[in-house]
Specification:
The protein is mainly α and about 325 residues long. Helices cover about 75% and strands about 0% of the residues. It has helices at about 1-35, 50-85, 95-110, 115-140, 145-170, 175-185, 200-210, 210-220, 220-225, 230-255, 260-270, 275-300, 310-330.
Length: about 325
């Protein structure tokens, strides 16, 4: 018993050390992302009017958007993997991000005026919620295996992609190019009015990360969780709503960015374990690190253009996803 308690304390100290180190690393990477570019802006150097405009109008909003979107997608992926009982669950892979993007595209074609950030967020949240409910409904059926649930999510993503392709066909050249760039994922051009969505993301993200203890109990099964005093039905609906809001805000702010919610939680589980009390906040921090790094790479890889950030994350995440599929087959 004493040995078990010592092992638990060691594991908790390890989690806390990772949380501290990753938080410091996130701050350092954000400072680097703000400084790097065609015009370098060093923290200790005097800042002129041009540098001040670059910081306030371009780089700081962009870094904040990448940080919050990365945190939202990674923590949503970590919760989905527990909620659906599927280690391959992720908003992009399961088509939830596709549902949000489908709703936004339909909004753009239905109303004759340019939608506000709040309207875009609401449409994306409704689309994400609808697709999440479909997946949760299938996952609650006993005959649906993990592989079939994954195929259902992929099919939903294909369906949303088909509707978006029709939107491409009927749009003009300029709107089609803007729509295509947005669907590939990008935080370029994010401004302060659009960052008003952070008022929705931050509190929901904090509440989601505080659900780790409940998720740890729910991993034991619904019957055991109820016996331990957890209101499984209420927690499950709360998690569904929060995931839908986070994914909807992320898609409204930065478009479709895949594999962040798949790669980050899975690698952390392999390295540290499955204690969601620590895994959820650490996934949020590491997701923010990954997306800020990906956005920085998208800015500096090409001298005369910005790569869509979704291309960078997909290039990093697709090989990991293939490895996870092969590993699950071998197991």
């Amino acid at each position: 018993m004493i040995l078990l308690n010592e092992l638990l304390h060691q594991q908790q100290r390890r989690w806390r050390a990772w949380l501290i180190v990753s938080s410091v690393l996130l701050c350092a990477i954000c400072l680097f992302a703000i400084a790097v570019g065609e015009v370098w802006i060093l923290p200790w150097a005097p800042v002129g009017e041009l540098q001040q405009q670059l910081l306030l109008q371009l780089r700081i909003p962009r870094v904040l958007a990448a940080m919050m979107v990365g945190a939202a997608l990674a923590s949503s992926g970590a919760v989905l993997q527990v909620l659906l009982g599927n280690p391959l669950a992720e908003p992009g892979v399961l088509g939830i991000s596709g549902g949000a993007s489908l709703a936004v595209v339909l909004l753009l074609f239905v109303i004759p005026i340019t939608p506000t950030p709040l309207m875009t967020m609401f449409a994306a949240m409704v689309g994400a919620l609808l697709f999440t409910l479909i997946l949760v409904g299938f996952s609650r059926r006993q005959k649906v295996s993990m592989a079939r649930l994954l195929l259902i999510g992929v099919a939903l993503g294909i369906l949303s992609g088909a509707v978006v392709t029709w939107a491409f066909y009927f749009s003009d050249d300029l709107s089609m190019r803007q729509l295509m760039y947005w669907l590939m994922g990008s935080v370029a051009g994010v401004n302060w009015p659009q960052l008003s969505l952070l008022f929705f993301i931050v509190p929901v993200l904090v509440v989601l990360c505080l659900q780790g203890k409940s998720l740890d109990v729910m991993m034991l099964g619904d019957v055991a969780a109820r016996q331990l005093g957890v209101d499984v039905r209420r927690i499950r609906w709360l998690l569904i709503l929060m995931i839908s809001l986070l994914v909807g805000c992320s898609v409204a702010l930065a478009g479709v960015i895949g594999f962040v919610g798949l790669v980050v939680p899975h690698l952390l589980r392999l390295q540290l374990g499955t204690e969601n009390k620590y895994l959820l906040p650490l996934s949020a921090i590491c997701g923010a690190i990954l997306l800020v790094l990906a956005d920085t790479l998208s800015r500096i890889l090409l001298s005369d253009a910005d790569l869509p950030i979704g291309v960078v994350t997909t290039s990093l995440g697709a090989p990991v996803f293939i490895w996870m599929l092969m590993r699950s087959q071998l197991d």
